[in-house]
From TrEMBL:
A GO CC term attached to the entry: DNA-directed RNA polymerase complex
Protein origin, superkingdom: Bacteria
Protein name per UniProt: DNA-directed RNA polymerase subunit RPC12/RpoP
Keyword tags: DNA-directed RNA polymerase, Membrane, Transcription, Transmembrane, Transmembrane helix
Lineage: Bacteria, Pseudomonadati, Pseudomonadota, Gammaproteobacteria, Cellvibrionales
Transmembrane segments: 86-105
């Protein structure tokens, strides 16, 4: 399957007169423009070249770009390459820009939301953590795990610590999504305690990777 490539689009122009056709000496031509563009999944992303020409209405002889007087070439470009003909060819670029902006917005929104979660921790909050930054004996290869808040009392947070650790964060997220992490059997019996005031610092250090609240 072809995901990207280049294609061309022909834009019809107006009829011009006053130029002698080299083949039949007719003086009437139809102007046109050809826009080549790069595409992703067949969506025009951005133009790569623009060429103009004229075609004799009598014998169909075509004159392209450099064969035309510079003044006429400029006039044709101004006529056929209007915004309404060119802007749609930036569709892919506009979509990409929107996706990037949406991604940035989502990341910033998540950061603000997680900051609010840390300021007011609640029971059953899921903390995806880097065990290697919390427990000295943690396996560096399988360092991503889950800590669920069991209770918050007088500035002290009691966590349940997962029995399972992964080499990627995606493994932890899958357990949350499949509600596997909602079972008490998923965690060790021994709790882990932490002062609530230390949570922001742990988030900054990367010990707390992210927070999810149902």
């Amino acid at each position: 399957m072809i995901f990207f490539g280049s294609r061309g689009k022909t834009v019809s122009g107006q009829i011009v007169e006053g130029i002698d056709c080299p083949s039949c000496e007719s003086k009437q031509f139809v102007t046109f423009g050809v826009i080549k563009y790069f595409h992703l999944y067949w969506i025009p992303t951005f133009p790569t070249s623009r060429t103009v020409g004229i075609e004799c209405t009598h014998c169909r002889r075509t004159l392209i770009d450099k064969d035309l007087p510079a003044k006429l070439s400029g006039e044709i470009k101004a006529t056929v390459f209007k915004k309404k003909n060119v802007l749609p060819l930036f569709s892919g670029l506009i979509i990409i820009a929107c996706l990037v902006l949406f991604g940035i917005y989502s990341v910033q929104k998540d950061k603000l939301q997680e900051a609010a979660y840390i300021e007011q921790p609640l029971a059953d909050d899921f903390y995806i953590v880097n065990y290697a930054k919390i427990f000295p004996d943690a396996d560096e290869k399988y360092k991503y795990g889950l800590m669920r808040i069991k209770e918050v009392n007088s500035g002290r947070v009691e966590f349940q610590v997962s029995k399972i650790a992964y080499n990627k964060v995606s493994g932890v997220r899958t357990d949350i999504r499949n509600r596997k992490a909602s079972s008490d059997d998923y965690y060790d019996i021994e709790p882990y305690y932490m002062a609530a005031e230390n949570l922001p610092e742990m988030r900054e250090s990367g010990a707390i990777y992210s927070i999810e609240r149902e």
